[in-house]
Specification:
Structural class: mainly alpha
Helix content: over 70%
Number of helices: 2
Strand content: under 5%
Shape: rod-shaped
Order of helices and strands: HH
Radius of gyration: 24 Å
Number of strands: 0
Length: 105
């Protein structure tokens, strides 16, 4: 049997978005820790070493940039989810009052 998300429960949708945010933040923290550990143990003295240090610097920059981008999006996803759920809840309530007040055919 496949579990389905009950989108009628606004708290479940917001709760799932919150759990996603926690997971994403944990993951970006883990990536940040790993990137911080990217270091060269000795001074690069040969052309090959200097080239490898350049690649390492590129990796640190690329991963660091991705983490900063993802960090900014995590909060945005939760805010957008809450906004959408609020809009759907309001529409549902309005629709319910409209249906209740309608005449039967």
């Amino acid at each position: 049997m496949v579990d389905k998300l009950d989108i009628d429960e606004a708290t479940e949708v917001v709760g799932a978005a919150g759990k996603f945010g926690v997971a994403a933040t944990t993951f970006t923290g883990s990536v940040t820790g790993t990137v911080d550990d990217f270091t060269v143990p000795v001074r690069a003295s040969s052309p090959l070493d200097r080239d490898l240090v350049g690649k390492l610097n590129w990796m640190v920059s690329a991963f660091g940039s991705s983490v900063r981008t993802d960090d900014g999006r995590t909060g945005m996803i939760l805010r957008d989810t809450v906004t959408a759920v609020d809009a759907l809840t309001g529409t549902d309530i309005f629709g319910g009052t409209t249906v209740t007040g309608a005449e039967s055919v």
